[in-house]
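Proteins fold reproducibly. Take a tokenised chain:

. . .
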Amino acid sequence: MKTILLPFLVLLLSVQLSNAQWVQSGLGGKTVNALAYMGNNLFAGASTFSNPFGTYISTDNGLNWTQTGLNTGTVISLIVNGNNIFAGTLDYGVFISTNNGTNWIQTSLNNTNVSSLVLSGNNIFAGTLNGIYVSSNNGTGWIQTSLNNRDVRSLTVNGNNVFAGTYATPIPYGVYLSTNNGTSWSQTTLNDKAVESMAINSNNIFAGTRDSGVYLSTNNGTSWSQTTLNNLYVNVLVINGNSIFAGTSPSGFYVSYNNGISWSQKNEGLGSNSVRSICILNNYMFAGTYTGGVFKRPLSELIGIQPISSEVPSQFSLSQNYPNPFNPSTIIRFNIKDSRLTTLKMFDILGRKITTLVNEKLSPGTYEVEWNASNYSSGVYYYKLVSGDYTDTKKMVLVK
């Protein structure tokens, strides 16, 4: 009986792995410039060459989409703040909805192109053709900051620091930094690139440029280095745990597991679509594309988790990593007996968490995940698996 069942399971698993790819999730024919979520609801800012424009909502993980009350204007940025959804549009400024997109009100920031929106504490920053505006009262009123003569395409926040990526005119452009909530701004040394997207992971600041790929600063913008993802138009950057995702034109979707040292293209099923926006919800990655609508893919296929067997293990277990000692990458294998929320976290010798490799509900089976420690120093590290009531911790050694 076992000799019949095992080949069947292996065949089933190989079929599942070969079918790992992006699938179309709706809004076909539309360009999706922005994605955001509130609870389990996914919002998309979309446009076509003809009406309707505006914002769409999916309440079933991207299976079906309906247009919200915002049905005019090209939406190019979205953020959520509590129960409020803000939409930045081309030419019409910022709109707000307080009832899950049913109704929208145009704020006093109107008649301008709002390419980017970001939250910093109680402040909402808006990047426009005429610099940066800030609202401290949930969009009721807006004040223009001193960065008032730049086309601001991207914004990101790290503590009290606000970073702004600007377009190619007027000179100089690149990345600007404010350490006092937009009262004053200083230009960083990335000062000759049009910056379309930005993201921050701890002390690492990533800037996606118009034609030169992704740049990285590890010292708060004092200096920048170009990563190996270059010569591309990088529309969007998103960070999840130890992974950095990039949506590009015209080359689609990329991921880096080692802070931009290397990148892998993940376009299976996506074709030649340019990726304009990215969002993570319910363990799925959603990608908004140019004229192709929304695509989605299980997050586990993109963050390095690989199913090794779909055979149900008799018990939970966490194996010793291999190789061990290692430099710079190692593999961790574990068994999941039944479907539960599972986390796999890395800790330094002092017990401080340094990254999360797995954080999702997994089906029963055997899994492997790779950890690349290129940016960590030699020493002892610990990895901890938690799945339901099961917990186990093991030690590994990085030798450089």
